[in-house]
Amino acid sequence: MSSDAPDAEESRVSGTESFKSFISGGVGGVCAVLVGHPFDLTKTRLQTAAPGTYTGAIDVVKKTVRLDGATGLYRGIVPPLLGITPIFAISFWAYDAGKQLIFSLTPGRKSDKLSTAELATAGFMSAVPATLVTAPVERAKVLLQVQGQGQGEQKYKGVTDVLRQLYKEGGLRSIYRGTTATLARDGPGSAAYFAAYEVTKKYLTPAGSSPADLNLGAIIVAGGTAGIAMWAIAIPPDVIKSRIQSAPTGTYTGFLDCVRKTVAVDGVTALWKGFGPAMARAFPANAATFLGVEASRKILDKLF
């Protein structure tokens, strides 16, 4: 019996750490939504509106505020606010699980530090389970964000109504439309995201110190850098995701069909629509994310 005790203790510690990652990730997600949603709405409207609707990001903001007031910039916030909490919770939990998996698969390694490539691999792995929640949340969010751009009657009254109507129209297949595009965005994006954060933290850590002891300013820089790294490569699949999720049923047969039709009609530059708002959002939203993650993690470390 005594020989089983170390394994049981190790399992308990591992479970506690996973719990901390899950909770702190959720806190970070809420922070990200509160800071970043107006930027995200602007990006989505630029990506999905007919050519000529807006002259740029500032024009989106001006027209949105004129039609709906300042609160219009937070249209569609309920789906991400409800969904981002579990999404980020799952993502940060899966990232830590991915790192542990890499360690377990390389028992003869000479270093207890993961390489940048290994961190990126763990980051990519984190997107796989998170996509199961992200895809339907993004579908509802996009549909709520793109309505209200004109004076016509609005089809959806809220997130519950969106999901109800989508299920009635096409079942789970309709709710999960855009899943492939979501993973195409979040897989590589998460790889860049977590790797950039870890590398930046290491770079900012003074000699002889630990990254865990970095001040708030350093966390802000590392978190913001992570966001920029992600969105620098995530915009093209994000454009395709937004178009697939907002288009009427039958418009596209899949991811590649949407790419082909988008480029054919609007040119290759259409794949970068929304780049400005996305990059403007990337630094503050993700700085807020990691501030929330690190602050809540320190509290949890004291409690458990």
UniProtKB/TrEMBL annotation:
User: What is the membrane topology noted in the UniProt record heading this document?
Assistant: Multi-pass membrane protein
Q: Which residue positions does the secretion signal occupy?
A: none
Top-rank lineage group of the source organism: Eukaryota
Q: Cellular location of this protein? A: Mitochondrion membrane
Record-annotated membrane-spanning stretches: 72-95, 214-235
Q: Where are the Solcar repeats?
A: 16-101, 114-203, 214-299
| A Pfam family matched in the record | Mito_carr
Which GO terms fall under molecular function for this chain's record?
A: O-acyl-L-carnitine transmembrane transporter activity
- An example of a Gene Ontology BP annotation on this entry? carnitine transmembrane transport
Q: Which InterPro entries match?
A: MCP_dom_sf (IPR023395), MCP_transmembrane (IPR018108), Mitochondrial_Carrier (IPR050567)
Tell me a GO cellular component. mitochondrial membrane
Task: Enumerate the UniProt keywords alphabetically.
Answer: Membrane, Mitochondrion, Repeat, Transmembrane, Transmembrane helix, Transport
The record's Gene3D superfamilies line, in alphabetical order, gives: Mitochondrial carrier domain (1.50.40.10)
Q: Which SUPFAM superfamilies match?
A: Mitochondrial carrier
Per the record, the similarity remark reads: Belongs to the mitochondrial carrier (TC 2.A.29) family.
- What PANTHER family does this protein's entry cite? CONGESTED-LIKE TRACHEA PROTEIN-RELATED (PTHR45624:SF4), MITOCHONDRIAL BASIC AMINO ACIDS TRANSPORTER-RELATED (PTHR45624)
Q: Would you tell me the protein name for this molecule?
A: Carnitine/acyl carnitine carrier
